[in-house]
Amino acid sequence: MLASLLNQVPLFTPDDVEAFLPLWKKRYTVNRGDFLIREGQVEQHLYFVESGALRLYLPTPDEDICVGFAYPNTLITSFPSLVTQTPSLYCIQALRRSELLAISKTDFDLIQEKRPVFGKFWRMELEKALVGKIEREVDLQLPDPAQRLERLLRRSPHIFQLVPKKYIASYLRMTPETLSRIM
Amino acid sequence: MLASLLNQVPLFTPDDVEAFLPLWKKRYTVNRGDFLIREGQVEQHLYFVESGALRLYLPTPDEDICVGFAYPNTLITSFPSLVTQTPSLYCIQALRRSELLAISKTDFDLIQEKRPVFGKFWRMELEKALVGKIEREVDLQLPDPAQRLERLLRRSPHIFQLVPKKYIASYLRMTPETLSRIM
DNA sequence: GCCAAACCTTGATTCAAATCAAGAATTACA
DNA sequence: TGTAATTCTTGATTTGAATCAAGGTTTGGC
């Protein structure tokens, strides 16, 4: 599953993929409600979702602020904590039973040093992620809830199959009631 | 100015800096209101601001959506267009007379191929930018305008000296009237 | 230094989304 | 499969930011 995805990356030779796969050492199975990481912990892993669905959010006194979802064939991590190796402000919680593969930061850093192609790969992933966040920034600024919904429907229609609407509402910065009324 | 900044990057040897600096070939001076790039053009440069101030925004039928500012010692570009080499959706406009240095995408890509340390440097810059955008994503979701203002004041107080409040209001997804009332 | 343009402030009013509330539907899992 | 917990929907009401409006201030450019 991860293997077939990596084989589709033009950058990688079969040898690269062979060197990479064994680094995804840990296999996690988490139940609905379980946490991959909680506020205060330092993120050590990058996760690949094989099945299930998860949410990434910032807990605040008032309410959780949902900043992302993960589902099969996507990566997830508490990125700021992973990069800076400081305690995470964010939590990652399973929305249903999920299966994940994990690579440690250490191993990931090492292979980037050893094989420049992985440095390039990661740079391209970061560029894609940044482009995504810039679009998201625009989405969040749209004053009309219906427009925000429309853009998410266009960009990630599958999310609506995978994630309870109340979390999507939070992600779209509206109440579940408002989302229900405009869907 | 750019030189002294680059010399402070621990990654770089003096030789790296010497190889890099000449690639910032073009020097632009733009007047208040001028555009570095307009919607539809394909971004070819990464810009370094020596003086002045600029805004990066998405023009829409209703209103401009402000997604960022640049000021001395910062980089700016229409990132999605630069990365994907497709027509830009965004505009970059000078808010006052500004002086910039520019490096072409071609030269920037080349030096990353030639000297791996520049690949690593860019990767780290992208990581920082992504962390920033994740924080910004949280900022934008805060329902209370005063909270959004507070977080910007904490993170980038200097912006209020450099940029007319009406653009800051847009960046904070509120009207100039609301910003005026809570400042 | 002067003038026009741009920007900011303050007040009155409107309106759309949040809140509050309660019942219906769906989902988890024992 | 049955039952409790969770999630979703719909309606009534409130509220706070947007809008509209007008006067004051700052800024840019000649």
Automatic annotation (TrEMBL), chains A, B:
PROSITE patterns for this protein: CNMP_BINDING_3
Top-level taxon of the source organism: Bacteria
Domain Cyclic nucleotide-binding: 23-111
InterPro entries: cNMP-bd_dom (IPR000595), cNMP-bd_dom_sf (IPR018490), RmlC-like_jellyroll (IPR014710)
Protein name: Crp/Fnr family transcriptional regulator
